[in-house]
Amino acid sequence: MSNSHSEDLDQILSIVKDLQDEIAKLSDDKKALKEENESLRDRVKQLEKEAKVRESRINNITRSLDAIEEDLANIRTGSSNNLSPLENAVLNYPENPQKSTYIERASHERAAKIAFKFHDWSEAVKNGGQRINVRESKIKILYESEYDEKLQSIQIRRAFEAAADLSNGKLKYRQQSGNELYLPADEVLVISDKQLQKLDNQ
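The structure assignment produced for this chain is given below.
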């Protein structure tokens, strides 16, 4: 074999070896990147887990603060007067009853909003008491005008049921003449500071 051919072969072998070294290096780099990627994924999962724990703790603290705020508000309104959850929610948060810990869902919030306007929207009943009757009153129009929310009949019914429940029976949900919310003559729905003061002075 001539010297020229021998040199060419040596050069080719050298190039092949360089390529093999480069491939080996790339393989090592790929392996290192894969390990780093897995490590990063594990770290992300850990951070997500820690974030969930923090969020849970924050939510618990928020609920505790809300409960403390509710307790303080109940002291202001005189919880010893046996006020119902509905009355407490309306008295303590007349503009935003959903802030009350007693208000747990949309029907409760609507119940509190209706209770807040009960004396304005209700009508006297012949045998005593007051009522809001879906058929005979303009409750849908009044509610939408006041709170900018259009309610369906089933949503009003659920709000009436929630009001009766949250008022500890002061308000009655009746269906004899269509869905209605009724306050008997011998019951007092306390929804204003003036009413509360009057109750405290008795």
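Interim note for the steering committee: The helical segments are 3-77, 85-92, 106-116, 118-121, 139-147, 153-166, 193-200. The two ends are 124 Å apart (CA to CA).
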